[in-house]
Automatic annotation (TrEMBL):
<dbReference type="GO" id="GO:0016491">
    <property type="term" value="F:oxidoreductase activity"/>
</dbReference>
<keyword id="KW-1015">Disulfide bond</keyword>
<dbReference type="GO" id="GO:0016020">
    <property type="term" value="C:membrane"/>
</dbReference>
<keyword id="KW-0472">Membrane</keyword>
<dbReference type="InterPro" id="IPR038354">
    <property type="entry name" value="VKOR_sf"/>
</dbReference>
<keyword id="KW-0812">Transmembrane</keyword>
<dbReference type="Pfam" id="PF07884">
    <property type="entry name" value="VKOR"/>
</dbReference>
<feature type="region of interest" description="Disordered">
    <location>
        <begin position="63"/>
        <end position="83"/>
    </location>
</feature>
<dbReference type="InterPro" id="IPR012932">
    <property type="entry name" value="VKOR"/>
</dbReference>
<dbReference type="GO" id="GO:0048038">
    <property type="term" value="F:quinone binding"/>
</dbReference>
<protein>
    <recommendedName>
        <fullName>Vitamin K epoxide reductase domain-containing protein</fullName>
    </recommendedName>
</protein>
<comment type="similarity">
    <text>Belongs to the VKOR family.</text>
</comment>
<keyword id="KW-1133">Transmembrane helix</keyword>
<feature type="domain" description="Vitamin K epoxide reductase">
    <location>
        <begin position="39"/>
        <end position="143"/>
    </location>
</feature>
<keyword id="KW-0560">Oxidoreductase</keyword>
<keyword id="KW-0676">Redox-active center</keyword>
<keyword id="KW-0874">Quinone</keyword>
Length: 146
């Protein structure tokens, strides 16, 4: 069995033309939400790309957002940002990429045709959401004071 066949089977065997049409043209609420996941994930990749370039030493300065008392460099150079065995920037990019794959896999009826896909998408997004909340509400303002 080829990788193409494995992936199509896992996605519920959607017809490629039907999948293309649904993803690009459908107004179904499920597809609209999946497009939103893609948009947010692409924006997340863009943000984490800048962080990754900084964390790996390719760029030496990150601009701060207009928010007062926010120190991008301090937060992205913190011990916690490097505590996963890798800087957190590349890990964030990988997580967003997985979200994009899962959001674009399967037809509009995937909850019935491939019910594991929405479950897997939830499992993939939940740790990132919890980690982001922890950074935003604890690590940055309380621990790093930045």
């Amino acid at each position: 069995m080829s990788i193409n066949q494995v992936l199509r089977t896992a996605a519920g065997n959607p017809d490629p033309e039907r999948l293309r049409h649904e993803l690009q043209e459908s107004g179904e609420p499920e597809i609209i939400l999946r497009r939103a996941v893609n948009g947010v994930s692409v924006a997340g990749i863009a943000a984490m790309t800048a962080v990754t370039l900084f964390q790996s030493g390719i760029v030496t300065h990150l601009p701060d957002p207009p928010e007062q008392d926010f120190d991008s460099e301090k937060v992205n150079s913190s011990e916690e940002a490097y505590s996963y065995g890798s800087p957190d920037g590349p890990l964030g990019i990988a997580n967003h990429a997985v979200n994009i794959v899962l959001a674009t896999s399967g037809s509009a009826n995937r909850a019935w045709e491939a019910p594991w896909l929405p479950v897997m998408a939830t499992f993939a997004a939940t740790p990132a959401a919890l980690t982001s909340m922890q950074y935003l509400f604890y690590a940055m303002p309380v621990k790093e004071k930045a």
